[in-house]
Design brief:
Layout (H helix, E strand, L loop, with lengths): L6 H27 L8 H37 L14 H6 L7 H12 L2
Helix pairs in contact: 1-2
Amino acid sequence: MSQELTTAQMNELRALLLAHRAELLVQMEQNRENLTPPSQDEGAVLQRNVAREVDQTLTDIDATDLVRIDQALKRMDEGNYGECGECGCAIPFERLKIEPQTQHCVACKSRWEHQHTGR
């Protein structure tokens, strides 16, 4: 089992989460601006509709990531950040640096992916 996160590690991870959150908000705003109604030119309408679908999908993905980041920040405030939501073990700092909004250790995430991909 991993050791608890230090204050410096927690501060580093909080900064990563807040920076990623700010980036997502900018991206979401740009995607929303791209969702303006298309022009009347038929070719342009088709092209714009495809672009609008892509922008909407990206906005939905960003919104999901934003929720995960907010949940991670809440877990930090509650004092249980870095614990696997499945088995309760400590998630290593190295994993949290790669994906600071994660809620699962590698073993539990791998098990979930295996169950949900039908392998």
